[in-house]
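Progress report, Aim 2. The chain analyzed during this reporting quarter is listed below.
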Amino acid sequence: SKFMRPRVERVISFALLLVLVLVWWAFVWLVVGASAEPGGALFDLMVCVLVSGVVGIPLARRVGAPLLLGVMLVALGLRNLHSQFLTHIDPHHSSTLRTLALTIILLRAGLSLDLSKLKRMGINAALLSSLPLLSEATTYAVLSVVWLQWPWRWAYLLGFTLTAVSPAVIVPTLLHLQEQGYGVAKGIPTLILASCAVDDIFALTGFSLFLGLSLRSDTNMRMVLIKAPAEIVGGLGGGVVLGWMLFKLFPIGASTIAAEWTDRRNFALVLGLSLVCVFGGKQFDVSGAGVLSAMCLGATLSNLCKDSDQLVHLQASLSFMWNHGAMPALFALIGASVDVAHISNGGVLWRMGVIMLGGLVVRMAAAFGVTWGAGLSLQERGFVSVAMIPKATVQAAIGGLALDNARQLASDNPDADWSGALGYSASILTLAVLSILVTAPLGSVAIAFAGTRLLSKCEVEVDLPTHNVADNL
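Predicted structure tokens for the chain:
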């Protein structure tokens, strides 16, 4: 019957998915052997990513929560279900996958940066994307120094790790409000969307700077103070040069090669160069330059190839990779990296919660303040401050990066004392996960609730962003 046919199709589709997983697991087992058997490093990795994605994404869709939150919660539950479950994941494999996901995030952040739109938005977008972020990062740093006795460089590394907002959570809810006409008359959704992209870029730049400062001994601080600005300048300049070169290379062969293959070639070039930048920076101890160059490469292409088919294809390809691979892997691994028993002992959890709450309150106050003079009412300014709450994507990507680097340095220099760096970086990872768990669902609900109550509704038709633009943000 017509009623039974969709159910049968769903059962068959699930069965085919199960067969697909088993076939590829058998292939991997035949190649690598014991590592792909139950209890092996590769087996735990595959179970973590597949189960978290297959269970977490439909569950999040059912309750209307962000998909990434569903994936992370399932992985967190699996990791803490039993003391020995998902404990054999190789840190090197996990770090590699998370760095790959970070590269995709950097490219998407760069491609979403439209300089002409920011220029039209004027000083309001510039203030909203910078001052609340700097205020929140400084609040985290001060509280960590005063309350936890952290060094200033590690305290600011924590601040820039936690402060970036998540367009992946903000954009869907904000676009839904915009489609209904809320806040459209004064351009509030556009202001927030433009500020989000720049906010993440500022956060990643600050993170890159303090990552280099933190993972050095005090005896090398003079050299670090010279090296850190050099990394920023080199990363920005290198990204611009690479982006310009790719822009010039894109048309080559377009008249003799099928358009589909030309698009694929161009996408492979962009992604490959970005991966070389990020992994090369990590390999040669210039992580900050690698991160900035990949992000600046995307921004250069975005503004040189504006409104072109190449840009649309790049955005669509990166979106597909993110939704069907990088996002489930990233949030599954970040969820599986947290041991709840560890953070619930010794009063650590409530201290971290208070620090995070303090930073969020200061960010909201700063966002409310910088919108003074923007022609918004008090209620609309309140909504803007609420819309800047959610954290997720950047925290998942960079939350474990300091710990990965600290472990690598400890392995390369076993005679040095790296206990402090390992402890601080582990706490940063824990706080990054905690910020996602708290602010992603809270922010999503708060935006939807406050939008219909604090924003004015416009009944006239307006031009809404296309699906590709929204997805890329």
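Confidence is low (pLDDT under 50) at residues 460-473. DSSP finds 20 helices and no strands in the chain. These observations will guide the mutagenesis work planned for the next reporting period.
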